[in-house]
Each structure stands twice: as structure tokens, then as C-alpha cells.
Design a protein that fits this description.
alpha/beta; Rossmann fold; 4 domains; 5-stranded mixed β-sheet; 4-stranded parallel β-sheet; 18 helices; 47% helix
Length: 558
């Protein structure tokens, strides 16, 4: 083929998307079918003339088409901008986008870069004005159908709720699904006794903390079994959060609560009440008084510029900003706030690591000093980028492995919940079905572990860190921003632009810097710098001396 004809050959990118994990995990399912249909179409067109060659296949697994927040779609769009793709092929328009606004933006970008679009189902031809008009019309219809479906579903949910029916989701503790009528709930008497005792104890003690401690000390427990759409099993004991949730649930007095256009509405529920209304509303009055009793009168709160970024290096829990009063006045620090709060009502704490308080006046200046070094020393920026590219070439695909590990953890939690349930069944009831279910879950776990091992061995990261030139340009903008501000609010914004995560352990901290191409934004946050392909946070594995007790570590994100 001569050079002129070769330049006219289309560089085809196949885009494939499925919406659910079930579709994504089926090796002979929709993903394979879509790819086969697209490849067959290209082969057929190439038999007539040299239509084009497939240079890339972009597959988004278990991703909705409602927006463009999809990693493989973003890679495809960047490839179009670089003219590495000159034709995008999909099996149907909805695979690319279900939003007319998003599709119009994508199509305008494709046209600006000389990229064509084909859809097998709709048989589009974007090389003509008529074909382009049909393309927009079909996109409008697709969005119209999606909105109609959503409106029908929402209307059905509201109609059922108005009749007092249960619409699914997490089943409140104290109830079970009615297998004969799935819109109804039935009372579980063993759990209902715990609910009634919680209300009675609160009326006696008058506050959440004393009530929670009393219930835990006397052996009252919440079963960990997941029912309905619950994402995680219960903790098994009373905490501030779950106790408050129980005491404020109107489902326990037989009232169905639902929303219409953001406003709460109620109807009489189809299930029996566990608590009488008089007791319930007495509890609400006490909770309301307690909520206003301890309101803080402080006009100025410590800024905590590392809030949301600081984690324990051992247990990975978030360290939140808190304060205490000492001889020297008010002291700000970071600690395991959620774990401490969650276990506040237990006499014996069960922390997974040694709880620690990190003084804000030591941690924050140390982090800020290291940021200034990165901004002022080009050799550090180069070392970070070089190491990030090295990591990119060698580390495993954390997105996919994370999904596998999440599935394995979910199976383990189900087995644990079944084991708890097994210990409570009466002697005259056969445990055989539970044993069979546990065996099935164990087989699923072993299969997932096998697939994880195979995937880890055969996949590496496809995401790319920023180039040194782009990163240095970004740091120059940040440096200018730093020189113009001194306020804690602006410092907080700067820290978030440069740092993804800080892991603290006794004597050191580890900083995970943002150096992925998708992490680089202008300081005002209003416009993204166009640095090419989107990437995830990348970090740098090395150690340098730092201020006071702390040692800086740039570790790869796992």
C-alpha cells in the first residue's frame, strides 16, 4: 500500500461497555458478544475496500452510561485528541452515552479532531449531514426513554410507599422479609426484645452514652446478619450511630417514611409496630433536648489543614481533627475519631492498632515544609516522576484486584453471618440448608481467589503518570499560588492539590503525592490542564530527612 492510501486508512477504536458486575464477570457474555460483532463488521467492510484497522479496544466493565466518568472512555477520548483513533465503533449508541448533553459534547470533540462514529444497531453514517441529524435524533430518543423509565420506576416506588409497602433495601433490625408478601415485613421477636429494651433503657438513663454502655454490659447484641440491601454486616454491639438510628426509626411504630421531591411524607406501614407511639415520642423529646444542650459556643475553630487526608499507617482508618484543653490552653490533634466514637460504649476496646494522637502543631508544619521543598527543588520533582513511571511499568492493576478483593470480603462476611445464625437455630430445625449455603459460598471464595491470582499474574497498569515537564509546569502554578496566600483556608486547598493521602505511624509519616495526569488541575480549580491521558495518583518510594520527629516517605499506593 502506498503512503497516500495508507494515510487514509481509518484507525478504529472499539468501545465496549456493560452496566453490571454480573455481565462483566461472564467470560461468554455481553463483552465478548459486543467485540465479536464489531470485529465482524470491520472484517466485512475490509472485504469491500481497505476500510480500516483496529488499533485499540476500550472496555468499561460494570460502568453506567449516565455520565462520562469511565476510565476506558476517558482513554478513548484522549486517543482521539492525539489522532491515534480516527473512527469509534460501538454496537449501539447507548453504550457510548445515555445522556444527550454528554453525547453532544463527545461528538463535537470527535468532529473537531476529524474522528468518525459508527453504531451497528442504528447504522449511523456521520460523513453526511443527514446522517448527523439522525444521530442527534436517536440520542434524544435514547435519553427520553431513559428518563421515562426512571420516572415510571420512581412513580411506582412512591405509589407502593403510599400504600405502606416495603420497597427493598436494608431491613431494619427487629424485622424480617415476609417471603409470602415481599412488600411486607414480619417481626422477629428475639430482636424486637432488644429494640424495646433500648427504648426503655434510654428513658431510664436519659442519654445515648449511658444507654449504649448499659446495653453492651448487660449482653444485648445486634445480629450481624445482613438482610435486604445492606452493604455491610452490623458491628454486633451498640454504638452512638446505630443506637441513635434505632431510637429515631419511625418504622418501629408502624410508620412508613418516604420522600417526594426531597420532602418527607408518611403513611401507615403494612407491618406491625414493635414500640408504642407514646414511648417513641417521649424518646424523641429527650433526644431533641440533648441535641441543643451541648451546642458549642466557640466562634473560631482550628482549621485542620490536613483533614480528610490523614490516615493511620497500621489500620488505615481516618485520623480526624479534634481538640482538648490542657495547661497551655486548647490543643489540636489528629486521632482515630471514628474508631474511638464507634467503641465509646465498650468497656474493653478492640482497636486493631495502638491508638495515637498526633499533635497538629507538629504534623502540619512538617507536611507544609516538605511541600515547599517539592516546589523549590526541581531534583525532587524529577525523582518523584521518575519513580512514578517505574512503578507504573511494574505494579499490578489495583482497580481490578480491588474488585476481586471486595467480592472475597463480601463472601467472607456472608459466611460469618451464617455461622452466627447457625448458632441460634432451634435444635428441632435442620441446619443442612445453612451448611449447604456455607459450602457454596466457600466454593465461590476459592474460585474468586483463583481468578485474582491469575489476573494479578497477567495484568499490569494501563494508566500513565504525568510527564516531568507537565508536573513542573503544574508545580510552578502552585508555587505562585503559595506566594500569594497565607490563610489556612488557602493552605488547605493547596495541600489537597498536591497530596492524595498521608499515613501516620509513631515517629514518621508517609506522603502520597498526586502525580497522575488526571490529578493536575489549575490552582483555582476551574479548569483542567490538558496533560493527556488520565491517570491515578502515583507516589514516590524513597525517604529523606524531615522536621522534628517525622520522616518523609513517598510510598506507592496499593
Amino acid at each position: 500500500m502506498d503512503k497516500e492510501n495508507k494515510s487514509k486508512v481509518r484507525k478504529i477504536g472499539l468501545y465496549i461497555r456493560v452496566s453490571t458486575e454480573e455481565q462483566a464477570s461472564n467470560p461468554e457474555g455481553s463483552i465478548k458478544s459486543q467485540e465479536q460483532r464489531l470485529r465482524s463488521q470491520v472484517l466485512f467492510r475490509n472485504q469491500e475496500s481497505h476500510f480500516g484497522e483496529i488499533v485499540g479496544v476500550f472496555i468499561d466493565r460494570a460502568k453506567s452510561g449516565k455520565d462520562t466518568n469511565r476510565p476506558e472512555l476517558q482513554k478513548l477520548l484522549q486517543a482521539i485528541k492525539k489522532h491515534e483513533i480516527t473512527l469509534v465503533a460501538v454496537t449501539e449508541l447507548s453504550r457510548l452515552s445515555r445522556s444527550i448533553k454528554d453525547f453532544c459534547e463527545i461528538w463535537e470533540m470527535m468532529r473537531a479532531h476529524g474522528c468518525e462514529f459508527q453504531s451497528l444497531r442504528e447504522q449511523f453514517d456521520t460523513t453526511t449531514a443527514a446522517g448527523e441529524m439522525v444521530l442527534y435524533s436517536i440520542a434524544n430518543i435514547a435519553q427520553f426513554e431513559r428518563k421515562q423509565c426512571s420516572e415510571r420506576t420512581s412513580a411506582n416506588f412512591i405509589a407502593r410507599a403510599q400504600r405502606g409497602l416495603f420497597n427493598g433495601g436494608s431491613v431494619p433490625f427487629g424485622y424480617r422479609m415476609n417471603t409470602q408478601n415481599k412488600g411486607n415485613l414480619i417481626v422477629n421477636e428475639d430482636e424486637a426484645k432488644v429494640i424495646r429494651e433500648a427504648f426503655a433503657c434510654f428513658l431510664k438513663e436519659g442519654c445515648l452514652s449511658k444507654t449504649g454502655k448499659s446495653l453492651n454490659e448487660r449482653g444485648y447484641r445486634l445480629t450481624r446478619l445482613k438482610i435486604g440491601g445492606a452493604l455491610k454486616p452490623r458491628l454486633g454491639y451498640f454504638t452512638l450511630g446505630n443506637l441513635y438510628y434505632i431510637l429515631t426509626q419511625r418504622a418501629y411504630i408502624g410508620v412508613r417514611v418516604f420522600k417526594i421531591k426531597g420532602e418527607d411524607h408518611t403513611s401507615k406501614a403494612c407491618w406491625d409496630a414493635i414500640v408504642d407511639e407514646n414511648t417513641f415520642y417521649k424518646v424523641q423529646e429527650i433526644l431533641k433536648k440533648n441535641r441543643h444542650k451541648y451546642r458549642s459556643h466557640s466562634k473560631k475553630r482550628y482549621p485542620y489543614i490536613l483533614s480528610g487526608l490523614t490516615f493511620c499507617a497500621t489500620c488505615k482508618d481516618s485520623l480526624s481533627g479534634k481538640s482538648a484543653h490542657g495547661n497551655g490552653g486548647k490543643i489540636a490533634y489528629y486521632e482515630h475519631a471514628w474508631a474511638t466514637r464507634r467503641q465509646a460504649y465498650l468497656n474493653k476496646k478492640i482497636f486493631h492498632c495502638h491508638p495515637q494522637r498526633v499533635l497538629a502543631k507538629k504534623l502540619e508544619p512538617s507536611i507544609w515544609e516538605e511541600l515547599l521543598k517539592i516546589l523549590s527543588q526541581p531534583e525532587l520533582a524529577q525523582s518523584i516522576i521518575d519513580e512514578a513511571h517505574r512503578i507504573h511499568r511494574t505494579e499490578n492493576n489495583t482497580d481490578e484486584t480491588g474488585k476481586f478483593r471486595g467480592k472475597i470480603k463480601g463472601v467472607e462476611e456472608q459466611v460469618e453471618a451464617l455461622a452466627e445464625h447457625l448458632s441460634k437455630i432451634p435444635k428441632n430445625v435442620s441446619p443442612t440448608p445453612i451448611y449447604a449455603q456455607m459450602e457454596r459460598l466457600q466454593n465461590i471464595k476459592e474460585q474468586l481467589e483463583k481468578e485474582l491470582t491469575e489476573f494479578t499474574a497477567s495484568h499490569t497498569h494501563s494508566e500513565i503518570p504525568a510527564s516531568l515537564n507537565d508536573y513542573q509546569t503544574y508545580l510552578a502554578l502552585i508555587k505562585k499560588w503559595v506566594s500569594q496566600t497565607k490563610s489556612p483556608e488557602e493552605q488547605t486547598k493547596i495541600v489537597r492539590k498536591l497530596i492524595h493521602r498521608i499515613e501516620v505511624s509513631p515517629g514518621e509519616f508517609k506522603v502520597h503525592y498526586r502525580v497522575g495526569q488526571n490529578d493536575l488541575f489549575l490552582p483555582n480549580g476551574s479548569k483542567r490542564l490538558d496533560f493527556g491521558w488520565p491517570g491515578r495518583t502515583r507516589t514516590y518510594d524513597s525517604r529523606i530527612n524531615s522536621a522534628e520527629l517525622y520522616q518523609l516517605s513517598y510510598w506507592p499506593r496499593v
